[in-house]
Write a structure and sequence with these properties.
Rossmann fold; 17% strand; 378 residues; globular; 2 domains; 13 strands; 7-stranded parallel β-sheet
Amino acid sequence: MTNVLIVAGEASGDMHAANLIHDLRKIRPDIKVDAMGGQALRGTGANIVVDNSDLAVVGLVEVISHYPVIRKALKSLQQRLVTHRPELVILVDYVEFNLRLAKTAKRLGIKVLFYISPQVWAWRPGRVKKIGQLIDMMAVIFPFEAAFYHQHNIPVRYVGNPLVGKVHASRCREENMQRFKLSGHTVIGIQPGSRRTEIQRVLPLFAKAAECLTEKHSNLKFVLPVAPGIDAQFIRSYLPSGHHIQLIEDESPYNVMQVCAAIITASGTATLETALMGIPMVMGYKVAPLSYLILKRLVKIPYIGLVNIVAEKEIVKEYIQDEARPEILAQEISKLLEDETYRETMIHNLNAVKETLDDRKGVDIAAVAAELLCSKLS
C-alpha cells in the first residue's frame, strides 16, 4: 500500500484534488489517500483527516481572524506527517498554509508535489527561491508559469489547466431553462465565490446590483448556484429581505451558467469557468480594508481576475474595493445586455482565453504524481 497525503484548502482546490486522485488511482490503484479537503475529495474515497469547510478565507485580516482554526489544522497535518510518513505529499494551491506544511515534509524527507503555483509572478517574487527549497516538483496550470520557474532553475511541469474539457453543461439550454423554471426570462447569474468570507463581503453588493437592474429591466431573473460545502441558509442570511435571487442547490454550476445572459462574479476560479462557458461577465470584489491597503502595495500586476491575467489585458471589467458599487456593476450588466457589439467583443475575447488554455501541451498531473512516487523524476 502506498500512502499519499493531499491537501486542499478551499472548494476549487478540493475539486482539482479530487480529479487528480481519481486519475492517479487509474495508474496506481494501490494508493491510500489521506486528505485535508471537502465534499469532492470525500467522494473519491479519500480519508478526510481535516475538513476544510472553515479554512477557505481570502485577505490578510481575514486570515488573522481565522488563525486559531487554521493553526490547529496545520498542526494536525504536521503531526500526521511525523506519525504516518506518506510517500508523497500533494499540496493544492492554498499557498501560505501549504508552504508551511511543505517545510515540515522536506525536513522529514517526504517528497512534495505542489499543484497550482503560488502567484509569485504577481506578488512577492522573491519567494520563488524559498519555494524551490521546499518542493520536489511544481506543477503549473498556465503556460507562462513554466517559463518563470525554469528561469529560476526550479523543477516544473506544465500540466495544463484542470478546467479545460470539464467546464460544460450536462443538459441542453432549453432543458435547463425549464428545469430551473426560467423560460421566457433573461437570466443574470450571481457568483459570490465559494469562501464564506467572500460571500459575506460581496453578496450584499451583488444583491443590491440585482435590485438596480430590476428597476431598469422588467424581464430579469437572477440565479445563484450554491457552491459545494456552503449551506444555502448561510447564503440567505446575507441577502436582503424580499430579494428575487433564486438559489440553485445540488446542481452543476455549469448548467446554471449556461442559462445566463451575463454574470456578476467574484474573483478567482469562477472567472475562468465563466470564460470557458463563453458567458459575458463583470467582476466585483472586496476584502477587509487593511488587507486591501497591504495587498495594493504588494501586487505587481495590473489585474486580479484570472481571465484578464491569462488574456494579458482587461477583457472583463474589474471593480475592486471602493470601485465595487452596485450601480456600477448594474451599469456594466446593462451594457452587456443592450450593446450587441460590446457583448460580442467580450465573447470573442473570452473564446481567445479558452483557446490559450486549451493548447493540449500539458503533461498529465496524475502522471507527474505517479512518477514522483516511482522516483523517476530528475
